Amino acid sequence: MVRKSSMLTEMMESPQGERAPAPNEDKAFVNVVAKAFELLFAFDGTQSRLGNQDIARITGLPKATVARLTYTMTRLGYLSYLPDESKYKIGERAIALSGSIFRGLDFRLTVRPYMKELADFSSASCSIGIYDGESIVYIEHVQSDEPLALRHSVGSRIPVLKTAAGHAYIAAISEEARAELFAELETRDEPGWPEMLPEVQRDIKSYQKSGYVVSCGKWIPNLNGVAVAVWSPRHATHFIFSVGGLSHLVTPARLKDDIAPRLVDLVHKVAGILTAADEDALGIRAR
After folding, report:
1. Global pTM?
2. Which residues pair with 216 in a beta bridge?
3. Fold agreement between 6-94 and 104-282
């Protein structure tokens, strides 16, 4: 499947969750830069070593374009070439860049103890994700000491249409952005769409009423979860907080009665932390 990163082509959001013009409608959009980033996103953790043909297959870019890009990005240090395998891996400059990005998400360190507390209470895992096209990508992940807790990590991807985190994101964005997302899902012939539309719409209404989305067995039969999204003006994106675990430990009743209220409280704390960080960055907090 060709994967396109929403970070480049879809999701420059305003505080209201509105989207920027599509790249083909934006005269200021530099296609070669977008293609270079699409190439980097092909190395998603599960694909750590790729040849030019692999990259072309994943990104949908022409092989000649991929060859030029990999040559240039290797010269610049964003890729490293492995001659014994005739493949590439992420280079040191790209790793350094990712470190800078994560330093800009340092609120994760502040909220991690709260996430760990909730994960232990739930006998499950607690994660922070961001939207990226077909997936929610984890940027933070903690799990309980329960040996049967779901095993994911930072960088793991979960599907948007079949998870509580994905539905919480859809519910949190503006109506205009949501309509564009639905149109895009239809255009790219997303598997399961539009059959899932009624279920997504029910979760939107539920989110607007309760402040969270519950998902039981929609993605994996024995996996249940709950999710809440929070907007960060400083980062210009939604962060999706979720708790997920095995169904015999995280029952539907326990999700709604015990875990969801605690997750909502956690996100309220996060909203305060993000607001304080915004004020610090702007120098407007009271001294």
Report:
1. 0.73
2. 224
3. no
